[in-house]
């Protein structure tokens, strides 16, 4: 993931990181990336893996799809908190780890994040940390600026931990926002964080954040945007619609329908955040007009 994010950081765009828990979701992400000449990051949350998408099953499948792809495909552990599980993901072949100790006291966050970096970097594994706390939309955490990332502290955090990318709290939240609500992002904070840190910045809670917000966040310095809730919602609605249209539809076609809908959504999202057209097949990153 590190080369992908460094390219996005240097050239001013963002890469989509979509939470994926089965073959159809991964294939949709990879096929969309190929069609858009874009890199993509496959996110799997720690809870998702413990409950369903077990790494020993998912990683070989993702690796096969990634190896056949002509664009970069990274595999990232999302919101890793359990050290035993983090080590297992490293062992299984994840290309990056997000260590989330953001709900803990600052010094403990520093210590845990630094330890993961010390374990991961010798293995060539990229590490994302989080400072500030991206909470839940249902709890109104997007409006709690007491949870936002403080730029001066962020610089110290990055220096002391050695993270390759930093997830920042700037006004988004996880989950579904109340109906009709679009979050208000602190764009000036993003600009200041980018100026002070000069490193890839990550926006969690990309679902429901609003297209214009996403475009402006990227322009201010965001380089990775996580999406989970919207992708899962597309899958659920696709199945519901297909069953309403034909109650006799078989399961295989339900899965194919979900994959088609997700592919379309991901392609559109990639265009919104500027990652489309950044990779030519067989030639690596575009080096000209980006």
Automatic annotation (TrEMBL):
Molecular function in Gene Ontology: aldehyde-lyase activity; zinc ion binding
Annotated NCBIfam families: cbbA (TIGR00167)
Residues that coordinate or bind Zn(2+) 1: 79, 174, 204
Cofactor(s), names only, from the UniProt record: Zn(2+)
Record key words, sorted: Metal-binding, Zinc
Cofactor note: Binds 2 Zn(2+) ions per subunit. One is catalytic and the other provides a structural contribution.
Active site residues according to the UniProt entry: 78
The name this protein goes by in its record: Ketose-bisphosphate aldolase
UniProt entry tagged with the keyword Cell membrane: no
Source superkingdom: Bacteria
GO biological process: carbohydrate metabolic process
Binding site for Zn(2+) 2: 100, 130
